[in-house]
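Technical annex B. To support the medicinal chemistry partners, we prepared a structural model of the target in complex with FE2/S2 (inorganic) cluster, based solely on the information shown next.
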Amino acid sequence: MTMQWKLVCKQSDLVVGAGVAAMVNGEQIALFYVPESEKKVFAIGNWDPIGKANVMSRGLVAHLQNEWVVASPLYKQHFVLASGQCIEENIKVPHWSAKLEDDNLYIALN
Ligand code: FES
């Protein structure tokens, strides 16, 4: 299947070092702008499967075990931004490739 880049927002809609939530094709996605990281922007599902609420975009971003992670604001589990994998539990949230081009942020949809 070919990957489709979907325009989601402007770079200026993102917050440096923190998350924002976006609705893409009826699904809530949490976007994290981490300029120090290699990828710059990460996109994971906004739904916290442990806390059972759309809160991931409100979590704290940190660098842990050599990965950029977000700590869920509810029960503080850490989710790896690049893969959606939870560090403490065997659970994963969806993740998407993201890219900045000019002032635009795109995520890859399959
Ligand atoms: S962990 Fe990267 S594609 Fe699923």
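Notes passed to the chemistry partners:
The radius of gyration is 13 Å.
The chain has a mean pLDDT of 96.
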